[in-house]
Design goal:
The chain has about 950 residues and is of the alpha/beta class. The protein has four domains: about 45-180, Orthogonal Bundle (Helix Hairpins); about 185-515, Thiamin diphosphate (ThDP)-binding fold, Pyr/PP domains (Rossmann fold), CATH 3.40.50.970; about 540-785, Rossmann fold, CATH 3.40.50; about 795-960, Rossmann fold. Helices cover about 40% and strands about 10% of the residues. The protein is elongated. It starts with about 45 loop residues before the first helix and ends with a helix. Pfam families: E1_dh (PF00676), OxoGdeHyase_C (PF16870), Transket_pyr (PF02779).
Amino acid sequence: MGNENHDFLPEMSGQDGPQPGPSWDNPRWRQESSGAGDDWTQGLDPTQMRLAVAQAAKQAGKPADPKAIERAADDSIRAMLLIRLYRVRGHLAADLDPLGLSHREEPEDLSLEWHEFAGQEDREVYVGGVFGFEWVTVGKLYDTLRATYCGKVGLEYMHISDTEERRFLQDHFETPEETIQFTEEGKRAILAAVIRGEQYEQFLGKKYVGTKRFGLDGGESMIPALEAVIKYGGQLGVREIIYGMAHRGRLNVLANVMAKPYKVIFHEFQGGSSNPDDVGGSGDVKYHLGTSTDREFDGITVHMSLVPNPSHLEAVNPVVLGKARAQQANRDDLTKHEQVLPVLIHGDAAFAGQGIVWECFGLSGIRGYDTGGCIHFVINNQIGFTTSPKFARSSPYPSDVAKGVQAPILHVNGDDPEAVTFACKLAVEYRHTFGRDIVIDMWCYRRFGHNEGDEPSFTQPLMYDSIRAHPKVSVIYGDRLEREGVIAAGDRDGLCDEFNDRLEAEFAAAKDYTPDEADWFGGRWAGLNKPADPETARRNVETAVSDKLFASLGRTLTTVPEDVTIHKTLGRVLKAKRDMFDKGEGFDWATAEALAFGSLVTEGFGVRLSGQDSGRGTFSQRHAIWVDQNDESKYIPLSTLPHGKFEVYDSILSEYGVLGFEYGFALADPKTLVMWEAQFGDFANGAQIIIDQFIASGEAKWLRANGLVMLLPHGYEGQGPEHSSARLERFLQLCANDNIQVCNITSPANYFHVLRRQMLRSFRKPLVIMTPKSLLRHPMAKSAMGDFTGKSHFRRILSDPLEIADDKVRRVVLCSGKVAYDLIEKRDEEGLDDVSIIRIEQIYPFPGDPLAARLSRMSNLESVVWCQEEPQNNGSWFFVQNRIEDALTQAGHEGMRPSYAGREVAASPATGYARRHEEQQRALVSMALGLNDGGAALRQSNSQSGANSQSDTNSKTNKG
């Protein structure tokens, strides 16, 4: 029986709606068969060609004898092959390099000789309507092909399998009225934009000699081209453009495309802040900053934002895509993708060299991540810092990676601003029509070095000899417009002088400029703020839910629709859940999580969870998606709830790209709980750039708050080095100035409350949670109904479940995570009634005050121990030891210092041997509890680990 009533995401259709058929089938992958008239096969069947030629000859009054028809058919087949080869390979002969240094041998099969037409330029051949010709001379056809495919724009598109996409590009390239044509007014506007780009760079170079600006010098044609994206995009329904780009040309784009006031940029060059002094934050260098603005073309206003980014090339790409996806959701534009357009501006070396580029292409057509196509603009300097292209990539073009998703590529000569502008116009139309990525590869040059203080002639002397002698873009284009009669002699100089006068006025105004407000809590962020109270004094918000909502969510989570056939094991899981709700106790981690999600959705928030196996859960614990066992249709219980929206996606096998995407989504939508889940916690290190440069420091650098949640499975269960540690120590090392929150939670109810707290607070901070593995089903890791309702709330520290009188406590063991239950079990087994085990559930911001209050009541306290499973150089120890000592002092135990119980220092996060793991675990628990055998056993195990590792290596070598 079908399951059409249970869509994956009921609100959406297209790529985000139900996809019929089994899970391995994707309609986007299907390649159409080549039918009649297809551009790959048109006219190449000899029999069909003879018939077509005979009919055409008859209509044209040409000789119709069999030999003439046979010869004409043969000519026609060769002519059509010539046309096809120009469509496929014409870009290889295009005039792309402004410097003329790229010496590429023209393919032999683009010559008339190869097609046996040499010396026969006057012969008429039948081409059946190509370029508007029925019959055309060989010479005329050849000239047309050269002008079309080998001019200032080279088109790569025949790798695309979809016939309609190829025809669209072909028509826009081969139809005269669709090609590069601009009115005189349009040409003057293009020239003015180029001049603004050039003069701006010259002005900065003159006023701030030797200061790095990563200028656009040599690539100024990008300025009118990006304005064309705004103009033509607006005409097609675009109302918001989200840009991402690296350093080169960024200040120029900020000023001349994003309309950031020149005086503000000059103020920053003079050392001034981009935000008011009372806002705080570290700030960032000016060529990392972003901005947002509105621009109007032809009466249509388009909102634009340039996302701030670090020096890590291409790292901003997934952030832009995630932000675009969120804005499309906010605008109810996830089906048509018409209103929000992502534009990424790349350097050639980075586009070819950075793997994140491919990760983003991989996201481009995936449900939950599709943005309806992104326009990629490559500033092809033909050099990467000091590395020439032949040493920087293994393929002819930096854009070749885009062929992996069958994106069309427009190679264009940067000395022809009309051609570059045309390429952007075509890109906007293609993206609007097909909702797919497209690449513009603008060949240009870098007039100065990697930055203005660099000397490029050290490594590329010949290139820079040519650059120094090469005229500027405005000179080349201005001379051309003079020849065409579009402008008069001297007009170009007049435009330069006029713009320079404007810059001088802005320069003078910069001296008195002071920023009056920061822009980080406007729009969808209205009502949120920076926390007013210190991180250590912050109080919890009310996160409990009513009994009625709790029961209602229980029914949603355990009711199977009649037309859904679930897996028999899932049936047992759901029966166990029903028992939890019937008894009001025994709630496990996954159920607590689902209750948090469902309650937030019911209250009007969005919930978005993504990761490599998030639907089912890596450990078969979540089951947010129920897959019908008969037809693989999907039912998501939480998506049936009213008010908000619940989304869960199994992502591509990527950490870097997907985490960046989710960070970008959370950047744009503070009203959605956005979560990224690592398959195993240590896999997060594959996304370390996003963690370091965006999540931990983005608010301080760029005043951009973010509420992203990272769920990182963590815990030592003997699964080896790669599946034990989420590298908790690395996150703690990043903690400062109230930037992020780091938790290692042991209670399902506490997990429920921390997720709800994340959305119910009046501010947003990234939240890193060390989620468990064994605790997902641990008999002690359970919560009762009362822990979710009434006056319950998130607890930063959890007291010992064994009630010990405060004055009886001699030893306190502090810990976080799974080891707490090992400690409790061993303590109870040994009958130690004077040892209290306290769990630190939130490690940062560290709960110093409540811990001090708890310790102050222990009047006979003799020792405090910090116990962790991680090696001493990992985990929390080095972060918490001074904070625990401060809490002891505050509690009146001055002079008492915490001691350490755990594994000794180690290069690897964990042993790979089950027996050794068990020995170490028993030993560290005993050591923490003060049992005599603990410390010695742990040291012996660690010593054996080093010796055995060498022995194991030698053994393997001998066997080998």
